[in-house]
Design a protein that fits this description.
This is UPF0178 protein ACFP56_07330. It comes from Paenibacillus septentrionalis. By secondary structure, the chain is α/β, with parallel strands linked by helices. The protein has a single domain, classed as Rossmann fold, CATH 3.40.50. β1, α1 and β2 form a beta-alpha-beta unit.
């Protein structure tokens, strides 16, 4: 099996530094993908990919790049679903794993919220990222990479 790669939906990702720090500890390559509207600075040892401004460009680039065993980090349920279908691991910016067991429910909830907004109703956005969320993300990313290392996939 090829070595794992971390592919990040970099548009508005609040845990970029945490990803890079942990990935370096395990010598795992990182690819950050963002639209030109979310300019990414060049970072040593991190592949930075800028895609056009259309609404799904970053997601489509990632969906086409991801391979089985890779780790995709995103808040987008649709992208997570595509990554799961390719047998990739997926994590949210809060460290929550997207899996076959929970993705259908998350997609249904997203569709229901979109329907409510089309009806003129207000829906809540995501809550602010807390220090506890960052810690959970770091712990879960570290745990995933440790498990892959033990299986000699890193």
């Amino acid at each position: 099996m090829a070595a794992v790669k971390i592919i990040v939906d970099g548009d508005a990702c609040p845990v970029k530094n945490e990803i890079i720090t942990i990935a370096r500890m395990y010598a795992v390559p990182v690819c950050m993908v963002a639209s030109f509207d979310h300019r990414l600075p060049q970072i040593e040892d991190v592949e930075m990919v800028q895609v056009d401004r259309s609404s799904q460009s970053a997601d489509m680039f990632i969906a086409n790049k991801v391979k089985a065993g890779d780790l995709v980090i995103t808040q987008d349920f649709g992208l997570a679903c595509l990554a799961i279908a390719k047998h990739a691991l997926t994590l949210s910016f809060r460290g929550e794993a997207y899996t076959n067991d929970n993705i259908d429910h998350l997609l249904e909830r997203r569709a229901e919220s979109a329907k409510r907004r089309r009806q003129g109703l207000r829906t809540k956005g995501p809550r602010a990222l807390t220090d506890e969320d960052r810690k959970k993300f770091q712990q879960n990313l570290t745990k995933l990479l440790l498990e892959k290392q033990e299986k000699h996939e890193v």
